[in-house]
Amino acid sequence: MRLAGEGMSVVLVGREWPRLRAARERIRAAVPNADLALQRADLAQLGQVRALAERLIAAHLPDVLVSNAAVVTALGRRTVEGLPRVLVVNHLAPYVLLRLLAEALGGRRARFVVVGADPTSLARAPVDLDDLLLAHPERLGEPVELRPFRAYGRTKNMNTMFVFALARRLAGTRITVNGAHPGIIGGTGLASELPGLAALVAETYRLDPNVLPGPDTGADTPAWLATSPDVEGVSGRFFVGRKPVETAPHTTDVERCDRLWDESARLAGLPASIRPQEARSDTSGPSA
């Protein structure tokens, strides 16, 4: 809604046509002249992510991409590729999509914004690079009921590591890559696949669901990163409340980030190297 209000052509991506159409109508109710397109893709299936990238490259190559989709799910739930669903939706899908779009963008100017989580709390949850596939859930600690949430936290640290790794690889291009924590937002349905988990997390971390801010608050920093001239040319940073912050050393360590990059490439069936196409003229209007 914010991007459409800025006059951008916006592509909405979701799993189901009815929900996509409902989102389109909500946005048009607030922004009557919104230029909106719909793309259906299940980010839990890497084949659909690749097909989405192909369609976006053919018809809607974006100047801005906000990667926001995430899920908390049972550790044993696997995708059609046999990979943990939480790993694919939260990390491998944006890894594949942003890589493919970056290569297609070539010399065009673009901003990639990856929505992560609270870097302060996640400082205590380093990615287990020896167990990306969650073969050893006991490493996630006790109680067992919180393990899915801890696995989610590790995937959000992967988002941060991916921001830094991709920004380094795109240095010298006109594509910027930044991360953002939107705040702890209510009503997202993040843990809807695990009834009861949201209440357990709220009790464990002393959160009151009745006073959590809504999605308009959560959209502020990501939308600002997507549009503000204040961050023109800024890349490889993580923002909270529109302010750049430091993240944990285990998320910035180049060797760890490169190891996650290479293993993600292997799991996704991509080469380790990324090669943006030759620069081409940038004459189109802004789109997201």
Summarize this structure as a short list of keywords or feature phrases.
2 domains; two-stranded parallel ribbon; Rossmann fold; globular; single chain; alpha/beta; 288 residues; 7 strands
Structure characterization notes:
With 288 residues, this protein is of the alpha/beta class. The chain has helices spanning 2-5, 17-30, 46-59, 85-105, 119-122, 147-169, 197-204, 215-218, 220-227, 249-252, 254-268; strands spanning 9-14, 35-40, 64-67, 110-115, 175-181, 237-240, 243-245. The chain has a five-stranded mixed β-sheet with strand order 3-4-5-6-7, sandwiched between helices. Strands 1-2 form a two-stranded parallel ribbon. β6 (237-240) and β7 (243-245) form a beta hairpin. α6 crosses α11. It is globular and about 50 Å long.
